[in-house]
Amino acid sequence: MARGFESKDVEFQQSEASRPKENRPALTSEDREIQSKRRTLELALASTRAQLGVSRKPEHRQMLDQAIHTLEEQLGKL
């Protein structure tokens, strides 16, 4: 059964390789850095929100709330 999935994966990869590429302008190093920062902040924000969802101690919840606020501010500045 795994062999069937492998052949479908190879077929998909071949069709993707033959598909014309989108003509997107190349990103500058500054744009790549901003995208990387944004992804990092979004992941940190998601992780912090998940931690907040399972946290029970009020002090820890307060710290996580402050961290979420800070991360949201940083995302807003990008």
Q: Structural class, please?
A: mainly alpha
Please state the oligomeric state of the protein chains shown.
single chain
Given as residue ranges, the uncertain stretches (5+ residues, pLDDT < 50) are none
Shape: elongated
Measured between the Cα atoms of the first and last residue, the distance is 47 Å
Quick check: average pLDDT? 84
Q: Order of SSEs, N→C?
A: HHH
Main beta sheet, described?
Answer: none
Assess the beta-strand content as a share of residues.
Answer: under 5%
Strand tally is 0
Rg over alpha carbons: 21 Å
Alpha plus pi helix count: 3
General description of the model:
This protein has a domain at 31-78. Helix 2 (29-54) packs antiparallel against helix 3. The chain is mostly helical. It has three helices and no strands. It has helices at residues 2-18, 29-54, 58-77. The protein is elongated, with a radius of gyration of 21 Å. The longest helix has 26 residues, at 29-54. The protein starts with a helix and ends with a helix.
Tags for this model:
mainly alpha, 3 helices, 78 residues
Summarize the structure.
By secondary structure, this protein is mainly alpha-helical.
